[in-house]
Write a structure and sequence with these properties.
Mean pLDDT: 90
Number of strands: 0
Oligomer: single chain
Low-confidence stretches: 4-11, 24-29
Number of helices: 30
Structural class: mainly alpha
Strand content: under 5%
Order of helices and strands: HHHHHHHHHHHHHHHHHHHHHHHHHHHHHH
Largest sheet: none
Number of domains: 3
Length: 652
């Protein structure tokens, strides 16, 4: 691995990125890099601006909107010590403190107004795309001689393909998938920093990547694979291996040390059962490995032809090694890797792109089972210097074999065509993500046997009062996933909404039978018992729910026998009285007290926005009006939504 001479005083990641604009040399004007960055920024912003109003969906509810730990920056030290703060669904316990810090910062900026959350994601995606450009331009293009000039064209193609690939849409728009998005940024940054001999920065970024998502564990191996390709390890593998200590030495060993310390830290604070709750009971490591052979190929299909993008895929497990689907996948994956090894000396970019793709996906796609065989955000890291590099290398190789005077211009045209083709796909996905019902109806249509997608579509319909349609989706889900505790919980909620409390109790009991430690099911059981006039039994269920999840505020409120509701009612009246006597300051104080106890209180949110307007605090009021608009749309309250839009429009 031939590393450039160390440059002093440029340790922060952003300085490393943008100082690279200055590395073009006399033969290459800096104009190319500056213009390309502007083009890249315009492309990313244009592609994802339509996602800014999108709400919080799926695991966002457990990890963000229902998670009180994100609502105070004072919790930041606790993120490093208490893995149960990650999500209110305790089975999803994990160590991701850096991710949680970004959530807390977003909440401090805009609370649950989604604009700041998605501006952050879009900025991270842009930064990662630029890092991809720098990696290919300076290090990941062969032959090496082209790195002094012509590598900027395939580097730009790789970055633009990565930035606009529709398969990467979910990592940018789905807020819970920020773990993959941010981890990739740190990971690629650490990879580039190591190759730039900024070893302390590389170690720091590697640690940040690990503290964002554990998939970053493969970085030392990816660097080793890069060294093999860069040093032509095919020529004499023994000599290459003996030379690794002298070329990579202490800096590489430091990365292993960081990894070891992280794994010890992670094991010390995670409960022993944590990994057992992340997958289906029948999913053995062998079943997972066989299934992921197909998943590797499926991600390539989505990368090249993204017609099946979905918030939740219907994707079958490979349960038998002799099944045709399993064998075909194994042959294709093995053949791909064999071809990369055989042709690696002649085509190093092909070999490295293949190594990057398979190694970076390995933590989630080999022997450690998870709850979903595939999802749209999982290949984000693998596509960075994997699939995106492979596609730009393929286009470059093809165009250079044609009788063209300027193949680099043909590459630019081909990349632009791909980008333009991707924009309508991204715009359509943005449109779907702006409405939870559209999102889940799409998933249900693409996966008619996906019980979770059917259930979530039903939940969206139920939240909008369309109970008959909701029941239809729940019944379809029950036909394919009868043993799904969440489905029985939703059915219990539906039965309660239709005043069928005995049936609601039966469904809650069924959910508890399937998942005995499911706190929400115990709460719903208590609610059904209370409506049946069995308050003592209801209290036992509420207490059990709180034992399982001490943060379950609804159970706490139910146990207090309505005292909190009466207190809130008094605060609301005090605030309304203050508005009547034209004292918006006192009114704002009262409504804030209500929201401190019930953060989603409909009336308090509206009236606080009014009070802040009267106090001449439009920036604070805007956050409340944006939240009010989302709440009104969810409730199909057209009049309030119109008022909120009018207030917001008056500030534009």
């Amino acid at each position: 691995m031939r590393l450039p001479a160390r440059r002093m005083g440029l340790s922060p990641l952003c300085k490393m990125c943008f100082s690279s604009l200055m590395r073009s040399g006399a033969a290459l004007p800096r104009t190319f890099e500056a213009l390309f960055f502007c083009l890249l920024a315009a492309a990313v912003i244009g592609a994802y601006a339509g996602s800014l109003p999108a709400g919080f969906y799926f695991d966002d509810s457990y990890g963000i909107t229902q998670n009180p730990s994100v609502r105070s920056l004072a919790n930041i030290p606790r993120y490093f010590l208490d893995p149960f703060l990650l999500t209110t669904y305790r089975n999803n316990v994990d160590v991701r403190p850096v991710l949680q810090i970004t959530f807390a910062l977003n909440y401090a900026i805009s609370q649950y107004a989604p604009w700041s959350w998605r501006v952050f994601n879009i900025a991270v995606h842009l930064l990662t795309s630029w890092l991809v450009f720098l990696c290919v331009r300076d290090h990941c293009w062969w032959p090496r001689e082209e790195r002094t000039g012509s590598s900027r064209w395939p580097a730009a193609a790789t970055a633009l393909i990565f930035a606009l690939a529709p398969v990467n849409h979910q990592a940018v728009v789905y807020l819970w998938a920020r773990s993959a998005l941010l981890c990739t940024c740190f990971y690629v940054g650490a990879f580039l920093a190591f190759l730039e001999r900024r070893f302390k920065l590389a170690a720091a970024l590697f640690l940040l990547a690990l503290l964002t998502k554990t998939i970053a564990v493969t970085l030392p191996l990816v660097l080793l694979a890069y060294d093999f390709v860069e040093e032509d390890g095919w020529k004499d593998a023994g000599a290459w291996l003996r030379g690794v200590p002298s070329r990579m030495g202490r800096p590489w060993a430091r990365l292993w040390g960081v990894l070891a310390l992280f794994l010890i830290y992670r094991a010390s604070i995670l409960p022993g059962w944590a990994d057992l709750t992340r997958h289906e009971s029948f999913t053995t490591p062998l079943v997972w490995l066989m299934s992921e052979w197909t998943a590797y190929l499926y991600y390539v299909r989505l990368f090249l032809w993204p017609d099946a993008l979905s918030v939740d895929h219907e994707f079958a497990y490979n349960l038998s090694l002799s099944a045709p689907r399993t064998l075909i996948s194994l042959v294709c994956v093995s053949g791909w890797i064999w071809l990369a090894v055989r042709e690696g000396r002649k085509q190093p970019a092909f070999a490295f792109g293949t190594a990057w793709y398979f190694l970076t996906l390995a933590p989630e796609s080999t022997l450690v089972p998870l709850s979903e065989v595939v999802n749209d955000h999982r290949p984000y890291l693998g596509s960075a210097l994997g699939l995106s590099l492979l596609l730009s290398w393929s286009l470059t190789t093809l165009l250079r074999r044609l009788p063209l005077k300027r193949p680099e211009l043909a590459l630019a045209a081909a990349t632009a065509a791909l980008g333009l083709a991707a924009l309508p796909v991204l715009a359509h996905r943005n449109w779907q993500w702006r409405d939870g019902l559209r999102l889940w109806l799409d998933a249900a249509a693409k996966g008619p046997g996906n019980g979770r997608a059917l259930m979530n579509a039903g939940s969206e319909l139920m939240a909008r009062g369309r109970l008959a349609e909701a029941r239809s989706f729940f019944e379809r889900a029950l036909a394919v996933w009868p043993q799904y505790a969440f489905l029985h919980l939703n059915l219990a909620v539906l039965e309660s909404a239709e005043d069928r409390f005995r049936e609601a109790l039966r469904q809650a009991d069924q959910a508890i039978q399937l998942a005995p430690d499911f706190a929400l099911a115990h709460f719903q059981r208590g609610a059904a018992l209370e409506r049946l006039g069995r308050r003592p039994e209801a209290e036992l269920s509420y207490r059990r729910a709180l034992e399982l999840d001490p943060q379950l505020e609804s159970a706490r409120l139910a146990l207090d026998g309505g005292r909190t509701a009466k207190l809130v009612e008094g605060m609301m009246q005090r605030g309304l009285d203050a508005l009547t006597r034209k004292d918006p300051g006192a009114a704002a104080t009262a409504f804030k007290e209500v929201l401190a106890r019930m953060p989603s209180h409909y009336g308090a949110t509206y009236q606080l926005a009014v009070a802040l307007d009267l106090l001449g605090r439009p920036a604070e009021a805007r956050v409340l009006w944006e939240r009010m608009l989302r709440m009104a749309d969810d409730q199909e309250d057209a009049q309030t939504a119109q008022t909120a839009r009018a207030r917001l429009a008056g500030r534009r």
